[in-house]
Design brief:
The protein is α/β, with parallel strands linked by helices and about 350 residues long. The protein has 10 helices and 12 strands. The strands form 2 sheets. The chain has a 9-stranded mixed sheet with strand order 4-5-6-8-7-9-10-11-12, with helices on both faces. It has a 3-stranded antiparallel sheet with strand order 1-2-3, with no helix packed on it. It is globular. It starts with about 40 loop residues before the first strand and ends with a helix.
């Protein structure tokens, strides 16, 4: 994330509707509704480097618009495919089947439900960075991965991303429990519903946390024996009032959160972004799994927020095991930005080992 251009949020409640719905497959140059929304003076709101909304309602995504198709990856032996799980709103997931599925005979594999980042605004399950990462993670952990393609803001303000990711989790668990002949053969044949993991990075980690708490409060739509075995939050997009950051960054997070909720009065004391707000102990103590991993990076401006989350979870009375992975000398989502580095390889191993139980 880079610095934010501070502009009014009046667009959120203006009479001009956001009438363009851009799919993840559209590039930044084709998201525009018309060519007349091209002058800086026509910009109503800009959240750099993510998005611009123009006065005519057009939306321009500035990054994360490239996509790659699902495929077979010869280097890892992982096969992937896209599956629509709710035709009514176009909700889909990208599935990853590791070579362990054929090598293990009748042995069931853990299931990873992964939620991508992007400030709730950009990127997708088909974005090359995420396709590469989840493919590598599926191979390394020997897990079937379900990468959620949730709806993004501003066309779909929160809680759309939470609801879609919850739907992806419920669908994956039901598909595992369906048995031979089920609607999704990869999960029916190989998925172990008793070893489901939730994970995400940045805004995706925020979503994974909120989906986990929804499972705790509502009860999972699971078959007997199904369970969330662990939750992994990598560089989570959280707020915490007990630690401070540069004033411009505080303003930035507040403005991004208001934009995400489509409410200029939305505040960061909302437990969805501030899991350490009032009443946190009771919520966190109900975390519906036995293990949680929180990863932060020393040079990430969100690191203190992630550490505060981990500390609050430990102090909440939750009876599980909470691991904090604190990487020195690295910035936000370094493992995605520089996948060939030693630090990225180590992070991949930590996450994979958390899933495989190594």
């Amino acid at each position: 994330m880079a610095s934010l251009l501070l502009v009014p949020l009046l667009v959120l409640f203006s009479s001009t509707a956001l009438h363009v719905t851009s799919s993840p497959s559209q590039s930044a140059s084709t998201v525009m509704a018309s060519s007349d929304a091209a002058c800086p003076s026509d910009v109503e709101i800009e959240l750099f480097p993510f998005i611009r909304v123009y006065k005519n309602g057009s939306i321009e995504r500035l990054k994360g618009t490239d996509t790659v198709p699902a495929s077979f990856d010869a280097a890892t032996g992982v096969a992937s495919k896209d599956v629509t799980i709710d035709p009514a709103n176009g909700l889909s997931v990208r599935l990853y089947l590791p070579p362990a599925a054929s090598a293990g005979g009748a042995k069931k594999l853990p299931v990873l439900v992964y939620v991508h980042g992007g400030g709730f605004m950009v990127q997708s399950a088909a974005f090359p960075t995420y396709h590469r990462y989840v493919n590598a993670l599926s191979a390394r952990a020997g897990a079937i991965a379900v990468s959620a393609e949730y709806r993004r803001v501003p066309e779909h303000p929160l809680p759309a991303a939470y609801d879609d990711s919850w739907a992806a989790l419920a669908w994956a668990v039901d598909a595992c429990a369906a048995g031979p002949g089920g609607s999704e053969p990869w999960l029916a044949a190989h998925g172990d519903a008793s070893r489901v993991f939730l994970a995400g990075d940045s805004a995706g980690a925020n979503i994974a946390h909120n989906v986990a708490l929804r499972a705790a409060s509502e009860g999972l739509p699971l078959q007997p024996g199904a369970a969330i075995a662990g939750v992994m939050l990598v560089h989570p997009f959280f707020w915490d009032p007990s630690n401070t950051m540069a004033p411009e960054l505080e303003v930035r997070i507040r403005r991004e959160w208001a934009f995400t909720c489509a409410r200029p009065d939305a505040d960061v004391d909302d437990p969805r972004i501030c899991p350490t707000s009032a009443g946190a102990s009771a919520r966190l103590a109900a975390m519906p799994c036995g293990r949680v991993m929180v990863a932060v990076a020393e040079d990430d401006f969100l690191a203190a927020k992630g550490r505060a989350y981990h500390a609050a979870l430990v102090a909440s009375g939750w009876r599980g095991e909470a691991e904090l992975v604190d990487t020195p000398g690295q910035g936000h989502v370094f493992h995605l930005r520089r996948p060939g580095t030693e630090a990225a390889a180590e992070m991949l191993d930590r996450v994979a080992d958390f899933i495989s139980g190594a």
